[in-house]
Amino acid sequence: MFKSISINKSGFIDKAKIILSPNFDNRPTKSTISLIVIHNISLPPGIYEGKYIFDLFTNKLSPDDHEYFRSITNLKVSSHFLIRRDGSLFQFVSCLDRAWHAGESTWRGINNCNDFSIGIELEGSDYDAFETNQYDCLKELIQCLIKEYPIISIAGHSDIAPSRKTDPGPYFKWDKIKTCFDQLTYKS
Ligand SMILES: [Zn+2]
Q1: Is 158 helix (H, G, I), strand (E, B) or coil?
Q2: What is the pLDDT of residue 49?
Q3: What is the pTM of this model?
Q4: Ligand 1 center from residue 154 Cα (angstroms)
Q5: How far is the CA of 14 from the centre of ligand 1 (A)?
Q6: Contact 134, 177 (CB under 8 A)
């Protein structure tokens, strides 16, 4: 579907659908992009294919649309990427900028993973299997990113914030992206 996707010098994937989020800022100058963080998200939880993830990342989520939204409507969050159930790829923030996806987090002793990571959300939950289309897109995306940036690790949100987060959850099959780990040039 995304055969040989590429990333441009501005940090955007050419074939992604771009919906810009205001929720980003500059990466600290000394940070290199070295980590990919995989998440799951669905809004309302467990419901797929609505517009609410886009609303959340663009600060347009209405607390009146669902009771769950009242608890998150004031969050200022984003991710670099979202892969929907059909495998379509959306980008909200340039990879060169810092998206706000990780929150309080630590990876191998370094705090604030947003500084040095790229966030990829899979539309899904901790209770459902992900779609083959999503793994296919994810693999191509990661392969593109590790060619462009000095990525040394790929982790789940639950790996970098284990006391707070469970995503991408038990249904995320890490072995489906095993080849991506094998392709990391800058192994740590
Ligand atoms: Zn997450």
Answers
A1: helix
A2: 86
A3: 0.96
A4: 14
A5: 24
A6: no
Q: Which two tokens stand for residue 151?
A: 């990525």
How far is 39 from 125, CA to CA, in rounded Å? 9
Domains contained in the chain, CATH given:
17-182 (3.40.80.10)
Catalytic residue among 49, 67, 104, 121: 121
Residues 6+ apart with CB under 8 A from 74: none
- Token pair listed for 158: 């639950």
**Strand 35-41, strand 153-156: pairing:** parallel
Q: What residues have their beta carbon closer than 5 A to ion ligand 1?
A: 39, 157, 167
Residue 62's SS3 state is coil
Q: What tens digit of pLDDT does each residue of 104-140 get?
A: 999 999 999 999 999 999 999 999 999 999 999 999 9
